[in-house]
Amino acid sequence: MRRHTRVDHAILRAERYKPGHRMAVFLVGGAAAIFMPVVFLVAAWLFKFYRRRPFRLMASMFMWGVMATLVAFLANTACTLLPGMALGKGTALAIAAVVVAPIVEETSKGTGALIMSGRREFGGMLDGILYGFVIGMGFAFIESWLYFAANANPVAAGGIGGWAFDILYRSIICSLAHGCFTGATGGMVGYFKARQLVEGFAFEGFRRGLPIAMALHSTFNAVALLGSAIPAVFGIPLPLFDPLLTLIIVVFYICLGVYLQLKEKRIRLRAG
Fold it and tell me: What is the C-alpha separation between 204 and 268, in angstroms, rounded?
């Protein structure tokens, strides 16, 4: 009788994984998927200490992000069917991650900031960044939950430790990343609205900001793919640049937001 390998034991444990356990893990994944986006939503609302906007507007942008996930899911699926048949599944998934997803997802998310720009509460660049950031939180919530649902078996994910790491990584880094990407679109819309530099300023800001969001999104996904492929192929560890990129953008937004609020406060105090 042949001896069972470690892979054999993992397969046997996966086969004994009961439906009730899958449902419990699915619910835990849902709770984990929404927890950090909601924390970031509240943090974004509290961040604006000067002339804070109503929370209901932040919540509505969060819900736009939720709906944008469904639109992006259908569009991503449709746009990857033909490349999948022509080039193979692996190549199609890589193209989808680096090219298709940034275009589809940032367009669906950024449209919410464009629509929101018509409201009086959308006053400038910082408002646009925050509204775009919150849209990203709603998008990240549903995307993470769908990911957790597709990988709801901790055994298949490499054990409880690997499954927990995936949850933490996606709940924190991926949520922040989606918020940062769409924040670029919203920020440019707000910049042009505050200055009204051209006629149709909102669309001009959308046209300028959307490519930035797409480029950031594409870079994040490309580095994530390289980070998983290079160690597996060449055995060379690659630094986790995608979390570093996300944290750098977050720090930049925080510094910019503080500066813009202090500047606005000084201008209004002088005028008053």
Answer: 27
